[in-house]
Amino acid sequence: MNPAPILCVTGGAALAVLCAISLIAFGPAPARAEFDPFDLPRTRFATEVSRIALRPLRSPAEIPIPARLENILTDRILGQLAKAEFETVHPVEFERRWRKYSTLVGGTYDTTTGRVKEDPYAIVNEFTLRDLALERGADAILLPTLFYGRVDPVADGIVLETLGVPLAWQTQSIYLMNYADWPQEVTALFLGIEIRSVDGVRLYRAGCAITWTRIYRARGFSDRRPDRVYEETEFDATVARCLAPLSSLASDLARERNATPDLETGSGVPPLP
Amino acid sequence: MVGYASSLSRLRPIALLLGCTGLLAEGCASPPSDIDPVKSPTYQETEREREREMKEASREFSDQVLKAGLVFEDEALRIYLQELLDRLLIAEGLEAGEVGVAVLESTALNAHVRADGVIYLNLGVISQIENEAQIVFLIGHELAHYLGRHALKREIFESRAATITLWRRAALGVALLPLGQTVLATADIEREGRTRVLAPLRSGYSQSLETESDDYGFMALVRGGYDPTQSARFLQLMLNDHELERQEISSAKGDEEDDPYFFASHPDLLARLGHFRKIDEERRFACKQAPLEHRDACVGTDALLGETEYRVHVERAVLETARLDRKRGRRRRAIATIERMLVFHPESVDGWTMLGEIRGGWGPRVDGLAEAIEAIERAIEIDPTAPRAHRELGFLAERAGRFGDARLAFARYLSLDPEAKDRAVIEYRLERHRGASGTAEGTP
User: Fold this and answer.
1) Which of A7, A226, B51, B423 falls between 20 and 30 A from B352, CA-CA?
2) CATH T-level fold of B364-444
3) Do the chains contact at B204 and A3, CB–CB below 8 Å?
């Protein structure tokens, strides 16, 4: 049954369509779905994960993160997890086991090509995670990474900015006087957070931009000064943002439970067991 | 931003009028339901060319799927499914093998047919189906899409609607010129209109094609002597699985988005269930009214299900689906699927081993550990020389604090598989267990 042709001949149906359009034109815009970093229902995450082990931060060679900042980043992640009421296992525990097993299987990377050796890698990964579960009681593993990604510039008046920071071309601010000023591409440093169960199921994934790093324009590219990129405050804010859904997990679930009316008692509070 | 918003609100009444005209015109672009666009006089040379292109694109798709290793290779299963399909083809007066069948490595509850005549069934749907009757219904449904050239019809429908939209935009652009505005200014309104008014009209057309295919699948069951109520049972299974998925996967990450088979273009599952019950009642009534000599075609309670026949062929497919489900976090579905399979394959060592692995997991929690050990021990009972089962038993015994048992299991594993790739790591583990003395305190 195809209703479309009826619209051409039936006045009533046409009127109904007009009413529908009026509602759309003058009614409130529907809410857009927000990004959900959880791969499973949040209640399941809360009940299945209580202790999270941290893998050491991984970043490609072209990201020159200072060791001092790497430690700060690790501390901030551990701190945020603790604030969200999760128990944590320090990345040293992961590292020690990984190195031990890696030595036993003759390394997980091909020293000539730099590529992962699939079987040894899978074995080392399995035994490291099984050990963290068995010996440290970890339910999940958090994998932090740093990577470069694209971001969109926005115009605040005539000043171009991104992630709340003005864009600069060779230390000079970019003013939007004509379209030629618009950058071809802006890259940013991102913090990637992935949480997997110890047996490898992805539970949570978020990528959060830290700050912009490079601008491409017609004449080439211009890098941001490294001391402006690797700032403690920026990293702090990013960790908090990337793990915010975990921080609010307990309170959100409690609120949801209270908001669900109980049909037997008529109250919003679930009855005592 | 404020300026833009206020100018947009001034434009709304104008956009409303123009939008109404355009949307109505777009509604008129739909082909009437009683005229088959492929058979109608409007089926021109350009559309024949389009069909040729669609077939070419489908052949490319098939090649890519094969090259990417996305086709599940199980020749016995493929031959079995092809035989079921061939019966339907011959009943239609076509040659056996004129339409092919392949299984895709995907856990999504999906099946589809391409214009080049290949029916793709996903592992997910194969593992959920309970018997031959249900798979015949599904194959019949997909075959109806192919025979009715539904993909082409949908393409023609979409193309006509897109042409009207283009004209409407052009007209709107001209009308807005005196106001110094562009069509972009009303883009939000237009987008909302398309989503909330036009999309249901379009999906209505798709759904009518789906209902047509459902009816064909139902008749394929009746003609093949299968129990026709299995069409409704099949839909009920899909509905149940959809509910289970909601409990295991975040609603934003589930299969629903990329699952056009059951949840987007297809009519509401409950409505489809009602439809099947209705046509089955009509069939029963017609059977009662028919003269005695014609009642042979009316299947009764002895109708064919083909449960054993089906289960025999899908063992490997079920195990692969369970492995993929476990990887995705659908642990409960994986366990349920294997348990169903084990009813028909109680001697499947791989089945019991995988059941033990999934029940046990790697995590620190010990709930389900006893059942996991039980499943692994069953596998070892069936085949005491299965190395993978002994390896898993070693890990499970460790978690239960039975380090002596773990040591024995790991040693047995290494003796059964002397070339094991993880030999060095297991030997190191055995070394550590020697100092643990089989107590819970002596963690390795």
Assistant:
1) B423
2) 1.25.40
3) yes
